[in-house]
């Protein structure tokens, strides 16, 4: 009887437990939807591009249900924007661009490549003309490519391309949206919704998730790592010439300083930071660092093996390594010229103002001189013979021998011919050279 009751109790517990276990499994299977928030902030450049690409790959690995690209940027590099756009186009995950204040220039282009766009009230999107490093309009080829990209980005998601083109081409006339001919189009939130460039407005993330029917979703916020943030700073177009200038100043000062000190450490650190930032940003590889080291070694070898060939190869290797590590040849060229000008200026100041000399040459160049002031005499000067008379022992034609105060002396005339046995007068003594004339 006891066994029977125990058996019945065991069955009852199993049934009850099965309900709990079954409910738990269903909850696990029907887990919350996952939303990936990726921030796209500040200047668009290669470092940001690498971060966005990494984030999308991570979202794909976690099989999230939605990627939300939170945008607030004034724009930036075209090539970096195109890389980001390619990453958005190729992923199978749905992407929503959430313009949280501004998506200007390259930011507008990136937003257009998302599946849908939401904007905060008072947000702005547009002003996407392509310009060069000096702020001038780019050449026709670059402009044509950019307009084609803007048009394609709008059309692929069913948006009217004329507004995208008006953001990049001032010749398109849209006065009703504040972009008469000669002006670039910048859409405010209400205008973007009106023309179909935004699906709606959302005042914040919570509001956006509600509008996307994802208010119950699990939120995953991805942040830039310290290395990525640092790489973005190092690869900024303004920071690169500053970094190279600091490096050149440090190395130049080190050449004029004894030993290896703070200046040399500062210079090498700046160069290492340059390559480190570009490696993390995906711009440089070890080949550029190896080429720089080889170039620097050849440049040092030139001091010990004169000829100019090693120095030329070393200088070329250093310059080439910097270009290889860069994604923009023009910008890198300008940065190198700035650093070169700074290095020359520093050298002139050290030599002319502070009277410095390169210490590296002190061990290779003999600077001591055997002068009279130091007690060195190459030949005895016979000044005591000046004014004395004697007899030409040989014919002077114009050099020969004379007897002066009972001493045989090698003499030379002032250019004339003096016969043997004639009387002579010493008129000058220049070291071992005794000059006489006939009297």
Automatic annotation (TrEMBL):
Signal peptide, first to last residue: none
CDD domains with a match to the protein in the record: Clp_protease_NfeD_like (cd07021)
Domain annotation NfeD-like C-terminal: ranges: 383-437
Subcellular location: Membrane
Membrane topology field: Multi-pass membrane protein
Organism per entry: Metabacillus herbersteinensis
Highest taxon of the lineage: Bacteria
Record protein name field: Nodulation protein NfeD
Keywords, comma-separated and alphabetical: Membrane, Transmembrane, Transmembrane helix
Start and end residues of each NfeD1b N-terminal domain: 34-220
Domain NfeD integral membrane: 239-352
Transmembrane spans: 233-253, 283-301, 308-326, 332-354
InterPro entries per UniProt: ClpP/crotonase-like_dom_sf, Membrane_assoc_protease, NA-bd_OB-fold, NfeD-like_C, NfeD1b_N, NfeD_membrane
